[in-house]
Description:
The protein is 44% helix and 14% strand. By secondary structure, the chain is α/β, with parallel strands linked by helices. The strands form 4 sheets. The chain has a 7-stranded mixed sheet with strand order 5-2-1-6-7-11-10, with helices on both faces. Strands 3-4 form a two-stranded antiparallel sheet. Strands 8-9 form a two-stranded parallel sheet. It is globular, with a radius of gyration of 21 Å. The protein starts with 5 loop residues before the first strand and ends with a strand.
Amino acid sequence: MKEHAYRVALVAFPGIRAFDVSVITEVWGTDRTARGAPAFDLRRVAPDTTPVPMRGGLTLLPDRTLDWLPRADLIVIPGLDDHLTSAPTPVLDALRRAHTRGTTIAALCGGAFTLAQAGLLDGRRAITHWNLIDLLRAHHPQVTVVPDALFIEDDNIWTAAGTAAGIDLCLHLVRQAHGAEAAATIARSMVTAPFRTGTQAQFIEHPTPRTDRDSDALAAVREHALRHLHEPLTVADLAARAGMSARSFARHFTAETGTTPLRWLLDQRIAAAQKLLERTDLPMPEVARRAGFGSEVTMRQHFASRLATSPRAYRAAFSATPSTAPVSTATGSEVAGSSPIAR
Length: 343
């Protein structure tokens, strides 16, 4: 292995998900140097070299022990089949030491629970699969769980939402360490979009869970906002609909969602605009109107500040082909009928 190879440690112990192991191995364990990709040195690291059982009759053979972790440039933790699986104490201790050394640590999907067990997410922001958010909050109340992110970073610790978001995070980590072209080379090999970041990614249609509708007094307000993004909504409007003062509404909203009402509303407008740009050939002023920006200029400014691109460039990169792109004639409320949460 060449000296300049970027060293990646896949942390293994019983209970890790085979899918996440495969994602990590596909991104960092395949030699693509002939195509111009960087050289990687991926190691399967565990407390000992005993085969690690996984679901489905699979096993993973570690090739290094935890003693190798101080050499790693990046440590990646797969998700778990049982999200409350306790990681071995030596693994937790090694992760704490690695963070103290300043090593970048990333967890895919339910791997956030492993980081939480180590105490590394206490007082920090994190994300996991949307179906596990309440479980993470219940078992690790010291963690600030952000519900609607694709992946996030806090103090050099990365966490990702479920399944496909693990691929997105891995490609983003390649892009961060080696540049966009390296990430694009790997993405093309994997037959996935080369620019899937936290703000430029495919979206899933994700209505508010029924449990939230029953327990969260603000869920109805969020649903109303999503269905009326084309209207000039303000935080004061949403607070009035919730029957709260603006200050009280902002406090409760941030506690529930991990973000401010204004930022949440802007994120939803950007998401709605992205969806329209991807799926329709509507003119830019109409996209801006339906997403609630009011003008193309305003929409362009927010795309530049949040996504570091323009609406036209985004459409060019992510829209369907002209022959298949649907031309929407729906009203703005129909376009924004459910929450497009990045995954």
